User: Fold these one by one.
Assistant:
Number 1:
Amino acid sequence: MQQLPKDFLWGGALAAHQFEGGWNAGGKGPSVVDVMTAGAHGVPRKITAEIEENEFYPNHEAIDFYHRFKEDIVMFSEMGLKCLRTSIGWSRIFPKGDEEEPNEEGLQFYDDVFDELIKHGIEPVITLSHFEMPLHLAREYGGFRSRKVVDHFVRFAEVVFNRYKDKVTYWMTFNEINNKMDVHNPLFLWTNSGVTVEEGENAKEIMYQTGHHELIASALAVTKGREINPEFEIGAMVSHVPIYPYSSNPEDVMLAEEYMRQRYFFPDVQVRGYYPRYALKEFEREGYDIPILDGDEEILLNGKVDYLGFSYYMSTTVKSDVQADNKGDIVNGGLPHGVTNPYIQASDWGWSIDPTGLRYTLNRFYDRYQIPLFIVENGFGAVDTIEDDGSIHDDARIAYLQSHIEALGKAVNEDGVELIGYTPWGIIDIVSFTTGEMKKRYGMIYVDRDNEGNGSMERKKKDSFHWYKDVIASGRVLD
Ligand code: BGP
């Protein structure tokens, strides 16, 4: 039986906007996610200009952690979580984003949450921006189109680094900074950067221009954090969906490698501290105008991260003689050459189930960067059924998580990968990001709330709650 190190950070992952609710409580301002309506499987979410009376916004109340955090943290403690990954709602601290002084009520809320977590032996692992830019920065400044928003982000980072420097060690700058590479899904550029592409603009160029400002913001925040507390461990956080060649046809193999550059670009810059040559070649070839200022190269080099956090859900496959219109289709990573992999199954939402892909990813990242890794999202979105006796037998979720834990165990124990921890996504049922649904449940704790916002909000333990509690207690990764 294989074990993981005793100090392995077994945890769970969440994001402020997907579970806190209290969208305008305690002085919080609207964020870019607060104007996103609910969608459904195959039905995109709408981004409204402002908050409209007759629309339903699932993130406004979410699962009301804002008012229930003490009870929820007791349940997290019962599971034996060693850490909890979540984000600080940027617009709870700076309601508009460009104020001089932070909102004390917002700061106090996170003091209370972190104190409660630490009281129960759970270490907070904090994402600075998890798609939660203040709406005012998006509307008035154009989000990360503006270099000024870099300063506003660094100010936000400085305030929370100082406020929580004795409560939080592990930080991440931007959640899934790279998912906007799928430029055909407006959701990603909007939530990552507060940006919408205008008529006649080149979406890829806009993505790289705003991405440069985020990379500078990330590097400046890392440097600032190190000044405030040299003990901080500050990571990058990327979405990783490995891309396989459909066959041993060298055209398929090279195509997969070219697509993988989309996955590697952002972490290459955040981990190595400079732009990779393949990107500079692309900028030159496409004539992209990237707003690199004098001194930016030094900023990037000085602001390299301590570890690489990433989300892993699925893998994708490409075939060189296929031109599919997968634009905006998250399942194929929006890849024009994306095809179904005949060797693996998929979830009800079409996300492939590939635990070996997680071991493959851990090895590729570790070989490329030689720094500690942290799996900060991994999970199985599914419909759950409540039996007559109130039990919830989420066997498919347990099978998914067990197989992925076995894969990470092999990466650590057989391949020698340095892995800080594992925080399965949605440790409690929360609002889905891509669809805004509650129906797409990830949690080991069920929440009585449906897609339309009906329900008691009552929490129920699923079978996976007890299963995961046993995994953490035993540290057992392979049966
Ligand atoms: C990632 C986000 C998370 C989470 C996850 C699951 O992209 O970092 O916020 O939402 O996707 O996706 P979904 O909620 O759409 O099922």
Number 2:
Amino acid sequence: MSAVHYSVEQFTAFLTVDNPPVNAISHSVRQGLADGITAAQKDERVKSIVIHCAGRSFMAGADIKEFGKPPQEPHLPDVCHHIEACNKPVIAVIHGVALGGGLEIALGAHYRIADESAQLGLPEVNLGLIPGAGGTQRTPRLIGVEAATDLITSGKPIRADKALTLGLIDAVVEGALKKAALKFAHSVQEKEIPKPYAQKPAIPSETFFEDTRRLLSKRKKGFEAPQACINAVEAASTLSFMDGMKRERELFIECRNSSQSAAQRHMFFAERESLKVEDVPRETSAYPIKSVAIIGAGTMGAGIAIAFLDKGMPVILKEVSEEALKAGINRVEMNYAQQVKKGRLSEAMKDSRLALLKGSIDYGDLSDVDLVIEAAFEKMDIKKLIFAELDKAVKKTCILATNTSYLDVNEIAESVSNPKNVIGLHFFSPANIMKLLEIVRGKATSIETLNTALQLCKKIGKVGVVSGVCFGFIGNRMFQHYQREVGLLMIEGATPWQIDQALTKYGMPMGPCAVADLAGLDIGYFTRQSLSDDQYEAKAFLLHDRLVEMDRKGQKTGAGFYDYADRQGSPSAMVENMLSEISQELGIERRAVSEAEIVERTIDALICSGSEILSEGIAARSSDIDVVYCNGYGFPRWRGGPMHYATHHGKAIIRARIEGYAEKFGNRWWRVSDWLKD
Ligand code: T1G
């Protein structure tokens, strides 16, 4: 059955696209639209044509699931041309979102109207693509090169009112959409059909495209698609429409066939799969979460509070003293004041969010909250005491979550009478910015509690991944292995700056040593004090520890791996001498370490520990590990995450290298787990 329904009402043909859940433009939709336009042209009852959608939204773009398959005619650009060539006025009537190919279909129509809540965008760049159905040629002609470049390279949707101001749509309508559609259709059916795409758009300035390329090569470092977007928009302003369309098609096919697009499409689906848990059926209930308490108003606690306040959720911040509470509330207020100062937030929005924030030093104030998130010191005895207090204070349906980044959630759950309501919600700092949320499932955690956490992710705009209980869960466990190899490479001969350079060239936003200096070398130092020797390679962290002990804790003390006369930091001769001393103490003759070895050993360490995490069932899917590492640790999204990279690079190659490391360094850390064998 076609995904497009044809009907006629008051001289207007309605082509209704109905392809749940997001009206993705599958082959059936493309064929149905093409046939519908042909039928409406022949239909003597029809003086105007409306394209609209059933369900919650206009079309959300091409069906991404079809990309891996051989493309089927009619191709989307041809459908858009067919619509545009129609000799009766075609009106796209938009509600919900019109994204990618959906907006391109609307651009092929002669008019576009939208309801107030509509959002319009060209997010193809987020999939490593460019708009491939005329979007890069029509948009600049409609709204100008500058606005079009921003819409296409940012991938961000704009609201209907802004779309109207830009000229992307012709009207924002209120009330019943179908009635408004009929009214608009009747108002244009005797008018001459507009042809806005005949003229080339003006170029904003001689250096516009080069300036934009330079800006994006920094802001979207390593990504190819933004550059392709600029090339396509430049073609719109230098070539005829048809030649521009040919150029767009070439660039689109290049992007679609690229490993970067495959990686980013992998991430798109991976971030949706990660919220599906095999033994949590869709019909599982979830507790309503309408209010939250956060225990501990330090950096993490304040960040978590902001994450909830931003979504309009009332928050109680609980501290041990009035002084600590005041400092915590001040952290939240300062953050919002900064956002207002930077123009990211209005005063009114700041006030409305702060109005939802309350402070307390009494557990008795938490009796009615639906969720408590403990964000206190990373010490098991402190956490157990807090949970024992919570157990007495909260209602029976309250979810008790710990934000611990590596401690045993099962042990914490033993402190309460209702362990099935206990779960780990591991936020990443800054908690109001970082998208990743590791949901740590204890052995007693009920599926209702787990499902509540899964639903919460969507509610607060986080990317959730479920982890089992182990030291460091998924991300931090892998990160520790990555850091181990960094430390070993340094005592073997590499310098911190060589390592950072090699890994930023690979695509990491910051090198591991610069990251450690930014976060503070003392964080890892305190964690390591709680580890037993079999949990980490002590010699790999000798330099880290000695730097902390001499108060070189990173940026906050003006020196760490680097010297910080300015924010950039510069290589430190003293650190290089310390490395030579440590190598000598260990009887290691320093050697030249290649860039390739730095990348292979550190990234292979992620893959090796990732595959162990899979074999232990800590993570359910390899794509879940990719979601963690791209959203929590800056792994380049255009490589699709460490496990996608391993698959793309070739598991056999990586397996052979790991076997080689095991021979050279022993198999304490280097073991080939099942995932790498298949
Ligand atoms: N194709 C196929 N499936 C899609 C899809 C798409 N475009 N968009 C969403 N889905 C699935 C998704 O996998 C999930 O499946 C379900 O729909 C609900 O999605 C030629 C080439 C529209 C804002 O990039 O941004 O057009 O998990 O959980 O939070 O130029 O989906 O239920 O099985 O995200 O309400 C450009 C991508 C494509 C838009 C809704 N379009 N989608 O968010 O639901 S390329 C996009 C979204 C293109 C042309 C080019 C969001 C959403 P399942 P969801 P949501």
